[in-house]
């Protein structure tokens, strides 16, 4: 039997510091459920007061705006929550989305609120609910629309320091981590906008450019020899399995045969026309993927990829597009290979910077999750 470290005690939900306690939400706070003013009276709605729905939560700690607002009339007939209330979605697929109110507001009935008092830090409880949100979601009633009613939500068990100062110190540390993440997200958004502007300017046809069809630059390979056989992926394996869609890397396989090595390459989803530029060995998952490779050594594949990102292709029937339509699309391209290379290098460098920032962001998020698991359970103390 494992011994309990000095200064800690065993409880029904695990080992916690001696000066922490196990409480239900209902023991530390009043729990309220939102209401929706009658929608048949347009006078209930306006632009004065926040009316929160699940769509307005999960975008950061504080609720900064709402999709719909109420008039004074609508606000006065609604269940109001004071500032520093914790709003938590308790119905549907978005169970767990949450936020803290900066001002008095109201919500629809899909949301339960933990109303503030002087015995706990709203920020601490907000972070704790984020830590256990998946556990709360797993306890939702099994019906067509999963739901956690107010009574069940009030039974949610949390651990917290008896000292309000320690609760505040923990919440402040996690808020600081949030600040780093938010700042990096804003920087990434700014860099993306700068790249979009640069693409628009650099890829705008100029004197000395010519019109060509995509198929004049690219050959295609079918994915059949490179399709993965076993979809039991493992992150400890070496070879990524790719899709041209948003997910991109589906997982990692240990299969050693049929690995695509003719790099770099553009992978093209023949149904959706989604593309990715790939410069590392991989296997494919979809038989609808085509590998687009340069027709000759004079083709700057990176430049062609950047041009393809600007194409707005109207999707119609669910059919394959490359052979019949997409390869015949006309593009404007510099006659000079040097100009193609210069433009491609600028945009590639911007992508590399964005990729580095995105990796840094993922690292920050993992660090914050580790902090939550340490600080909110008392394994690491801020006393």
Number of strands: 22
Any idea of the CATH topology of the largest domain? Answer: Adenine-n6-DNA-methyltransferase TaqI, Chain A, domain 2
What structural category arises from helix and sheet content? alpha+beta
SS element count, helices: 8
Please identify the oligomeric state.
Answer: single chain
Order of helices and strands: EEEHEEEEHEEEEEHHHEHEEEEEEEEHEH
State the CATH superfamily name of the largest domain.
DNA methylase specificity domains
Q: Which spans have pLDDT < 50 for at least 5 consecutive residues?
A: none
Strand content: 15-25%
Major β-sheet profile: 5 strands, mixed
Our count of domains comes out at 3
The span between the termini is: 29 Å
| Overall pLDDT metric | 94
Indicate the overall shape.
elongated
Our Rg estimate from Cα atoms comes to 27 Å
What is the second-level CATH architecture of the largest domain? Answer: Alpha-Beta Complex
Describe what this molecule looks like in 3D:
This protein folds into 3 domains: 8-162, DNA methylase specificity domains (Adenine-n6-DNA-methyltransferase TaqI, Chain A, domain 2), CATH 3.90.220; 163-196 and 337-378, Helix Hairpins, CATH 1.10.287; 209-335, DNA methylase specificity domains (Adenine-n6-DNA-methyltransferase TaqI, Chain A, domain 2). 30% of the residues lie in helices and 22% in strands. It contains 8 helices and 22 strands. The chain has helices at 25-28, 72-76, 122-131, 133-138, 150-154, 164-202, 301-308, 337-375, and strands spanning 8-11, 14-17, 20-24, 31-33, 45-46, 49-52, 68-70, 80-81, 86-89, 98-100, 105-107, 111-114, 157-161, 209-213, 218-221, 239-242, 249-253, 265-269, 275-278, 283-284, 289-294, 330-334. It has a 5-stranded mixed β-sheet. Strand 9 and strand 10 form a beta hairpin. The longest helix is centred in the middle third of the chain and has 39 residues, at 164-202. The model has no long low-confidence stretch (mean pLDDT 94).
